[in-house]
Amino acid sequence: MREVLISIVSVCMLGSAAPGASDARLLLQAPSAASTSTGSSLVELDRLRVEGFDAIYSLDYKTARERFEEMTRVAPENPAGYVYLANNLWLETLKKTRRLLTTVYTSQSFYEVKTEDRVDVKRDQSFNQFIKQAIAASQARLAKNSSDVEALYYQASAFGLRAAYNTSVKRSFTRAIGDANQSIKLHKQVLKLDPGYIDSYLSIGLYDYVIGSLPLGWRMLARIAGLKGNKQKGIENMERVTTSGRLAQDDARVVLIGIFEKEGQIDKSLALLDELSRKFPRNYLLGVERGTMLYYLGRVDEGGKVFAEVLKDERVIETDLDLVHYSWGLALWNKADYPAALDRFNQVARWPKSEPGLVSLAHLNAGKSLDALGKRQEAIAEYQVVLKRENVFDSHKQANEYSRKAFVGSR
């Protein structure tokens, strides 16, 4: 039943964050919000919300944090600002640890969990404090009015966000399950009270899609456990959010990019990706996604040009060269262009600012590339480097396996 539980956690992760990964490619999106405050404070909260999410989509987490902090000063009784502060901190953490890569969540390696990942203690405490404040604020409002739809929506968002954080930052799937279930339950309550609160269909639609996508055997077990889903219905509900949602239209577009790709509807994915790129031109991660998708389609020349253009971005040059080189390397590796992929992985390993975990994965993939090229001794040397570094997902398991028996590539 573990696959079912992971899927449930993924529903809340994918339906509660901002730009980065879904399938989980580009899935990391968080709910957007308005306020029930009145008059000038309502206008001010909405302005801060819009500016904050524009900043998030532009990968400017400092500005986003400032806008959301101001929301909590303008309306400390409103849970929205606290949810957004938690979301912003989560996404910034994922970016720092290079877990805004979509390929992280599509790899089975990510789900190989023996112990929880170590986290930054101060960041962890701050995140959980924001979540507690959001839940407390929503509960206070619900105590006055049990039919307060907005309070329910943000409480659902807070639980879903905590599930997402524990899944992606800590890789603690078991811990996240309860929060994930609670989030979906609350979103359904929102729609029962107000069928016009379309934004809740994002998480519910994704839930339907994920459960409906399970293999038949697991789907039957899910039904026994009371979990029902329908892929097409899920997609239709998420599309409703893109056209009729009030708060989460862009969030839904991001989620659907990955779903359409998984379903082989690449043209739809590219159309949504282009739409978001026009709206948020400073988000170079959208360029990385586009380059990866073009390679997947076999349009390698176009994909290479996109990656090359992203590498010209001054912010990438300063902070994220490792992420872009690694993504390009994986795109090349998946097309069996092992020499070119090896060069990209080596650049990750050489760059002084590279994130340590990504360096380990780069060495692992460099070893596999060398094996595919028939350079066995050089491959073994890369695997030995991996084994001397901290274990990342199942990097030690793979390095040991391929040290004993060479990786065989495809042509």
Individual helix count:
20
Category by helix and strand content: mainly alpha
- What is the oligomeric state here? single chain
β-sheet strand percentage: under 5%
Q: Which spans of ≥5 residues are poorly predicted at pLDDT below 50?
A: 1-36
Write up what this structure looks like:
This protein is mainly α and 411 residues long. Helix content is 72%, strand content 0%. The protein contains 20 helices and 1 strand. The chain has helices at residues 2-14, 39-57, 61-74, 80-96, 102-106, 121-144, 149-168, 173-193, 201-213, 216-224, 231-244, 249-262, 266-279, 284-296, 300-310, 314-334, 338-350, 356-372, 376-388, 395-404, and one strand spanning 21-22. Helix 2 (39-57) runs antiparallel to helix 3 and helix 4 runs parallel beside helix 7. The longest helix is centred in the first third of the chain and has 24 residues, at 121-144. 50% of the residues are buried.
List the helices and strands and how they pair.
Elements: H1 2-14, E1 21-22, H2 39-57, H3 61-74, H4 80-96, H5 102-106, H6 121-144, H7 149-168, H8 173-193, H9 201-213, H10 216-224, H11 231-244, H12 249-262, H13 266-279, H14 284-296, H15 300-310, H16 314-334, H17 338-350, H18 356-372, H19 376-388, H20 395-404
Question: What labels describe this entry?
Answer:
411 residues, mainly alpha, disordered N terminus, single chain, 20 helices, globular
